[in-house]
Amino acid sequence: MSVLGRMREDVAAARRHDPAARSGLEVVLAYPGLHAVWVYRIAHRWWLAPGLRLPARLLSQFARFLTGVEIHPGARIGRRLFIDHGMGVVIGETAVIGDDVMLYHGVTLGGKSSRREKRHPTLGSRVTVGANATILGPVTIGSDSSVGAGAVVVKDAPPRSVLVGIPARDVSAPRSPFTDPASPSYIDPAMYI
Question: Coiled-coil segments, which residues (predicted)?
Fold first, then answer.
């Protein structure tokens, strides 16, 4: 996909997630979370290029200064990430974010280790993380999950979880191992059609 196509996709995602967005032009001009993602993409390319890690870090810090959103250029981010309001969001170096993820202000995807290892969270696709939520360490949050505002997540969560509290716990409806696609016991009804 072209750079312009990706940018259009990001603007459409912002308009889809935010009912306050009145036009694409407004999103392009006034959404700091979107600007942070766009600068991250440049910084990430530099991060992967030989000899450009320092310029990548400097660019990411400049974006932090302008937007209030800190995304380490080493993080791996999928398509259509939307950061609503943006201020105070921190995404660490080894974080991995799937497609169609939405983060509200104050979200931290932080580490618990000072060693050079996978130390930041992995978010599946279509995850929503509420304002001021903190996800710490190399935990995995399954796709289609929601993390409540102010939650502190320190353990893995399966797909379709609803995580609330400190420490966060899953308050979604109980799943049967036979109806949960994430379970090894899952029985796909399509096999019998």
Answer: none
Question: Residue 126 in contact with residue 134, Cβ under 8 Å?
Answer: no
CA distance 135 to 50: 31
Q: Residue 167 in contact with residue 148, Cβ under 8 Å?
A: no
Alpha helices in the chain (DSSP H): 3-17, 24-30, 32-48, 53-67
Query: What's residue 189's pLDDT?
Result: 61
> Average model confidence (pLDDT) for the chain?
91
* Range 88-101 average pLDDT: 97
pTM metric for this prediction:
0.85
Distances (CA, A) of 134 to 8, 30, 39, 78, 130: 29, 26, 23, 20, 9
CA gap 141, 124 in Å, rounded: 6
- Break the chain into its structural domains and give their ranges: 3-171
